[in-house]
Amino acid sequence: MSTILILDDQQFNKMADCLPKICESMCGLICLRLVDLQYLSRMFHVIQNQLNAYTLFLPDVVAYTTTAYTSVNFIEPPPNASKHVLYPQLFDESKTIL
């Protein structure tokens, strides 16, 4: 499986800026430029692949967060865990929502 592509802040913001244009275009209020459509086509493909990969890694994420829940220090993932999950970020973010 290929490496997961992570949307950086700039890509995420551009995608978020385009979503209202898509909605307006679907309602017939505006027409999207070809450049916008090409960009969105590529980004939706990237996001779809990323979500499919995350679904495959969900058991690793659940197992890791269950263990990390009780720890105050970062826990290294097991050797057989997916190399595509950003475990330090997952650890930090899990602490903010638990």
Q: What is shown here, in short?
A:
This protein has 3 helices and no strands. The longest helix has 35 residues, at 34-68.
Question: What report would you give on this structure?
Answer:
There is one protein chain. This protein is mainly α and 98 residues long. The protein has one domain (9-97). It is 65% helix and 0% strand. The protein is built from three helices and no strands. It has helices at residues 9-26, 34-68, 87-97. The two termini are 31 Å apart. The model has no long low-confidence stretch (mean pLDDT 77).
Strand and helix layout:
Blueprint: H1 9-26, H2 34-68, H3 87-97
The whole-angstrom Rg is 18 Å
Work out the helix count.
Answer: 3
What letter string, H or E per element, gives the SSE order? HHH
What value does the average pLDDT take?
A: 77
Q: What is the straight-line distance between the termini?
A: 31 Å
What brief labels describe this structure?
98 residues; mainly alpha
